[in-house]
Write a structure and sequence with these properties.
This protein has two helices and 13 strands. It is an alpha+beta fold and 221 residues long. The strands form two sheets. Strands 3, 4, 5, 6, 9, 10, 12 and 13 form an eight-stranded antiparallel beta sheet that branches. It is 30% helix and 44% strand. The protein has two domains: 59 residues; 156 residues, Immunoglobulin-like (Sandwich), CATH 2.60.40. Keywords: Membrane, Transmembrane, Transmembrane helix. One of its GO terms (biological process) is defense response to other organism. This is NDR1/HIN1-like protein 12. Its main location: membrane.
């Protein structure tokens, strides 16, 4: 036989059902703002990504271009290995191919290497600003101090100098950022420029030397 519930027990069950119903309603009420917040964050990030992609496709920054068009030698002393001293000046033409973006260069420095070993100290260059779709000529002077080199490098330089043709690499490195009209600008990117050149250089010669080979410089960003 089923046991009949008394008035007190029935009232207790009804109270529990009411509390359970209130708890479920409270949980549902909390879930609505959370779902709305998650939806808002998702839509915000989606719109942000679409905006960034649209801006990138519209501006699409291109690498700057560099080329060495002239060189002068003021000191090229390789007679006291393993120390050598050199002072050189290069004329470098750099072009900004972007029609909608300017380029700012920060912390530019330059040095010269031979067979992947530096033969000049690293020298700092002034900041450089590149207008949209423009060409700028810079003439960095590098060297001016003694640098220790390996025996292979010292002997190679003396042999090449005696032969009259010396292959060198001018290296420019620093940071750049692209800037569009208004407040739109990118963060800083490291730039590394390698210019391989062939100089017609004879022992003891001082002044402008002929460029026997100077292809476009390689630019890594």
């Amino acid at each position: 036989m089923a046991k009949e519930q008394g008035p007190e027990e029935s009232h207790s069950n009804m109270t529990q059902e009411k509390h359970r119903g209130k708890g479920m309603a409270s949980d549902s009420t909390l879930k609505v703002p959370r779902q709305a917040l998650c939806t808002f964050i998702t839509i915000f990030h989606l719109l942000l990504g679409v905006t960034a992609l649209t801006l990138w496709l519209f501006y699409r920054p291109h690498k700057p271009q560099f080329k060495v068009v002239g060189a002068s030698i003021y000191d090229f002393n390789t007679t006291a290995p393993p120390l050598i001293s050199t002072t050189m000046q290069f004329t470098v033409v750099t072009r900004n191919p972007n029609k909608r973006l300017s380029i700012y260069y920060d912390r530019l420095s330059a040095f010269v290497s031979y067979k992947n070993q530096a033969i000049t100290p690293q020298g700092m260059l002034p900041p450089l600003f590149h207008e949209k779709h423009s060409t700028v000529v810079v003439s960095p002077v590098v060297g001016g101090g003694t640098v220790p080199v390996s025996v292979e490098v010292a002997n190679g330089l003396m042999i090449d100098e005696a032969y009259g043709v010396v292959g060198l690499r001018l290296v420019l490195m620093g940071r750049l950022r692209w800037k569009a009209s208004g407040p739109i600008r990118t963060g800083h990117y490291r730039v590394y420029v390698k210019c391989d050149i062939m100089l017609g250089l004879k022992r003891g010669y001082v002044g402008q030397v002929p460029l026997l080979g100077s292809p476009e410089c390689k630019v890594d960003i």
